Amino acid sequence: MSKIYRLEHIEKVFLSGDDKVEVLKDITLEINTGESVAIVGASGSGKSTLLHIMGALDYPTKGRIFFKDKNIGLFSEKQKACFRNQKIGFVFQFHHLLPEFSVLENVAMPGIIRGLSKSRIFSLAKEALSMVGLEEFSRPVSVLSGGEKQRVAIARAIVLEPEVILADEPTGNLDEANGVKVGNLLCHLNKELGTTLVVVTHNHTLASLMQKTYQLKLGELHAL
Ligand SMILES: Nc1ncnc2c1ncn2[C@@H]1O[C@H](COP(=O)(O)OP(=O)(O)OP(=O)(O)O)[C@@H](O)[C@H]1O
Question: Which domains does the chain have, with CATH numbers?
Fold first, then answer.
């Protein structure tokens, strides 16, 4: 089975005034292509920090992180931006959609950033929206329910067929019923499209849907 991620002895220290906060101490982790993985842990244990490092939104203080044998730590800022746009689909707790834009325009955004033609972008966006079960493309995002917004965010994450979805508390802002729907949708995409899925969550039901679960505790990662 091929590895999509290899993290070697990752450490992350934040400086807060004169204090040093050692958030990640010695994280070693391998993730197979197509795998689904949950990362759980107490609030402040470093889950988001680890996910940000995996998405090249942040960098480790020490250690190396490889994406399919490419050392992300050696990427220039431009290469990192390209990596994020081409390989990763991000889903956040607070979806970060553009409220005044329509559902279709929001999902089209990554394609616009990549510079695809308008007709290609909109056909990809419609395909992604049908995968998440949304049909009304022209409504502004501001009028949608929380569950619908999260489905739009997932459509936006998958629109360019990323190799990995990195989801940070994707159900954190939803009621239980919508949380279950979003969890099932992410698992469906993982199985149908073979997209590797890494989910950071407090939600044990969501974590139980993943093939593997790791817990972050005192800066260390343990398989559960
Ligand atoms: N940019 C930063 N500067 C200083 N400290 C930071 C920074 N980002 C995160 N931290 C600290 O790192 C620790 C881990 O934060 P992180 O957001 O990764 O935790 P988490 O496990 O995702 O928490 P939660 O479940 O509450 O979202 C926290 O103590 C946080 O205050």
Answer: 33-58+76-223 (3.40.50.300)
